[in-house]
Amino acid sequence: MPRGKRGAAARQRPRPGVAGGSGRLPNPLLLGSVARAEKVLETSPLGILMSDRTGRIVWANQRAEEMFGYARDELGGLAVELLLPEHLRGAHLAHRASFFDHPRVRPMGLGLDLVARRKDGRTFPVEISLSFIETDEGLFALSFITDVTPRREAERRLQAEFAVTRVFAESGPMEGLAPRLLLALCESLDWDLGEFWRVDEDVLRSDAIWYRETLDAEEFATLGRQVPLARGMGIPGRVWATGEALWAEDVAQEVGFVRAAAAARLELRSGCAFPVRSDQRMIGIMVLLRREVAPRDHALLTMLSDIGSRIGQHLEHRRTEEELRRQREILYQSEKLAALGRLVAGVAHEMNNPLGIISSRIELMLADAQGQALPAQHLEDLSVVHRNVLRVAGVAKALRSFARHSPGERQPVTLNKVVEETLLLAGKPLSTDNVRVITALDPDLPPLLGDGNALQQVVLNLLTNAREAMTTGGEIRVSTGPVPGRPRWVRLVIADTGPGIAPRDLPHLFEPFYTTKASGTGLGLAVSYGIVQDHGGTIEVESSPGKGATFTLSFPAIAPA
Known about the structure:
There is one protein chain. The protein is an alpha+beta fold. The chain has 3 domains: about 5-145, Beta-Lactamase (2-Layer Sandwich), CATH 3.30.450; about 150-325, 2-Layer Sandwich (Beta-Lactamase); about 405-560, 2-Layer Sandwich (Heat Shock Protein 90). About 45% of the residues lie in helices and about 20% in strands. The strands form 4 sheets. Strands 1, 2, 3, 4, 5 and 6 form a 6-stranded antiparallel β-sheet that branches. Strands 8-7-11-10-9 form a 5-stranded antiparallel β-sheet. The chain is elongated and about 140 Å long.
């Protein structure tokens, strides 16, 4: 081809259209016609917008209209800024002007979280690539838009599952597990508030709550703690009744939602709830709430139901581990006490005879000294020896009580009667030391088979310890009732408002000769532990410094509670 003709042909070749050339189609052999090109753009999975230098939309494909919620041909003529949240529109004007001054093919906002706005005002995450096209009518910008909501949701759900797994992997007490799980779920799935409702016999009780710092939800949380929910009541109660996860597009319309007014003040709109259960039982209900209106998400409910099963299995596993650990500790303590009891029984027996002889001889010497002119110092020395012999005899008596494995005759006895008789004995010392006793005794409590005197010794010991701990006075709460979840068991709870027990002392409380008192023998709680064990019961203590101590004694009853 001659050089001049080759140059003319080059000048007539159309510049790339979508890549930044003229409006002519770049490859007629592939596209065939303008109509076919338009059909390709119309069926693209991407939303495509063409806008002029003033920001007016001159063309949009069907996917763009579906993406932004507009009917067919509604986007034409609108300002492109209307497809952005209001707080981003001012900045976009400057970006648009800069692009038309220097048009180029590029992704928009690389590394940023871009957000678009639908016709109804809802926002959604997007990715945008920009190009341009030159036509006889001027320069136009092309925006290729991808709705990345499904991908972001999938990423969030993977993050939620990872966050829950991480909480499981981290060591920590059972008491703090539910708040950590709520934090993990709400932050990873972008919810504003989460609650865990624990199944407590025939009601649901608010056990844990988490909410964002920007949400003043203390009133909402307090109402939840005050009002237990029956089966079918509110969102948690409905999940408990059906055993299935549910979605609430408008929480204010939920039947039995007693905190609707508080939720409205927090602008909480939508919510979901799912069961937390193991293979054996329903453990609780988790509820997630947010301030945005959100349509029902079936995939999310399915994922949360699976997470609820995982949480339930983990909680059941942890509960079983805790129970096994407690049983091992009880067995170890029982074996240790049994071995020590045999040793103590022999020691107490050997001590008892010589102590009786020494005590009687000193008493005779003191009686004879009354009629003789002995120096006062001698009399004082004999009195000191006599007091200390009696003290050692008291220790020997305590040792014999500790070594006695079987209480007296067993007969039906109620914990209420044991408490009432013990308070008659201890009432005067308690009132003298400014200690107030509050009782809450279940009148329908069934009896247990036991030794009333031995059980009275246990109660008296616990009351005495509480009184001595509260040197400036305080309050002791004594209550009886059935053991939750164990129909043939009854319990006695003694709680005080004293200084509490240091964590380092808790594991050793029932060990013989371990005491935190300056003048204690360390046998009172060990003897009490042995008596409770002889009755087939358990004794547990909960305490933290500055918050008092709570002793819970549980016994098998003769009849169901």
